[in-house]
Amino acid sequence: MKDILAKEFLYLFFAIITAIPVAFLFLYMLQLDPGHTSVAGDEQVLEVDMMLIGGILGFLGVYLIRLTVWAVKQFVQ
Fold first, then answer.
1. 52 and 24 in contact (C-beta within 8 Å)?
2. pTM score, two decimals?
3. Of the candidates 7, 6, 37, 63, which has an alpha carbon nearest to the alpha carbon of residue 55?
4. Residue 9 and residue 21: Cα distance in Å, rounded?
5. Helix/strand/coil (H/E/C) assignment for every residue in the chain
6. Which of 24, 32, 31, 23 is nearest to 53 (CA)?
7. Is-contact 32 23, C-beta < 8 A?
8. Which parts of the chain register pLDDT below 70?
9. Considering 12, 13, 55, 74, which has the largest number of Cβ atoms within 10 A of its Cβ?
10. String of b and e for 36-50 (b: at least 16 CB within 10 Å)?
11. Cα separations in angstroms, 5 against 2, 14, 19, 33
């Protein structure tokens, strides 16, 4: 049981670490630059919201890939 919890914790940590660059990539693909020097309040809120959406999509993407690999392993065995 401890092995399973340790593995899940590592997957969670990996997913969080991977989600950060995916969020920046998401902003880049939408052509939003988080490094503006003069940003209006509404634009700043939009950038933060888009960053959070990108991070959540990255996190879910990592777990979806993990579940897909697990399902293929179960199918092959």
1. no
2. 0.67
3. 63
4. 20
5. CHHHHHHHHHHHHHHHHHHHHHHHHHHHHCCCCCCCCCCCHHHHHHHHHHHHHHHHHHHHHHHHHHHHHHHHHHHHC
6. 23
7. no
8. 32-44
9. 55
10. eeeeeeeeeeebeeb
11. 5, 14, 21, 38
Task: Pull the structure tokens for residue 14.
Answer: 């990996």
**Structure-block tokens of residue 35:** 């490094």
CB 54 within 8 A of CB 27: yes
Q: Among candidates 57, 59, 55, 51, which has minimal Cα distance to 32?
A: 51
Tokens of 54: 């990108």
Query: How far apart are the C-alpha atoms of 22 and 4, rounded to whole Å?
Result: 26
